[in-house]
Amino acid sequence: MNDFLNPKSMLTPGMAGALVMFLSNAICFQFPEIAPRWAALLLSFVLGGGVIAAAQLKYFAAAGFWLINSLIIFAVAAGSAGVASKTTAQMARHTTVMFANVLIPSVSAQAPTASAQAPTKADLEAQLQATNARLAAQQQQLADAQQQVATAAAEAKQAQEQRQALEAQRAQEAEKATQAAKQNAKRFFKEW
């Protein structure tokens, strides 16, 4: 634990993370088709592998330390890149607002002029007549729709009655067939 919690060991992930951020930003700036997160992850594993190769550990222990150290380096690099990105975006937004306030004058509405007149009585009467005409057309549509609903309800009732009559007829025919079968069975199996 003493090897882990000392200033020298704390400095190593910070320096490695800064180096990964520095290199991945440079690579991704020159080659925009490479995603920065994948470049940073690859560089983290390369740096982590270099440290583990120098330590000369057993394979299983080396693989575990390589994975953990590489992810720590990546986390430091990604965290510092995120902080830098947010800070830059906030400063850019503040600078943009400041320049916009200086360069673009504020706008105020003008008072209404005399040319904007109130609607006349004739205009209002024309609007009222148009509204009444629309209302009459809608009332006629409603009456037509109600008539169609009544017609459909009558047709549905008639179809229901026909269905019930057909079912009653089928029930009578089934009863007749059952009685005929019973009579035929009595004739065939007579006692000797």
What does this structure look like?
The chain is built from four helices and no strands. With 192 residues, it is mainly α. It has a domain at 7-103. The protein starts with 6 loop residues before the first helix and ends with a helix.
Helix content: over 70%
Distance N to C terminus: 109 Å
Helices, by number, come to 4
Radius of gyration: 45 Å
Q: Would you tell me the overall average pLDDT? A: 79
Class inferred from helices and paired strands: mainly alpha
Morphology: flat
Could you give the count of β-strands?
0
Describe the main β-sheet briefly: none
Topology:
Elements (H helix, E strand, L loop, with lengths): L6 H24 L5 H20 L3 H45 L17 H68 L4
Helix pairs in contact: 1-2, 1-3, 2-3
In short:
With 192 residues, the chain is mainly α. The chain has helices spanning 7-30, 36-55, 59-103, 121-188. It has a domain at 7-103.
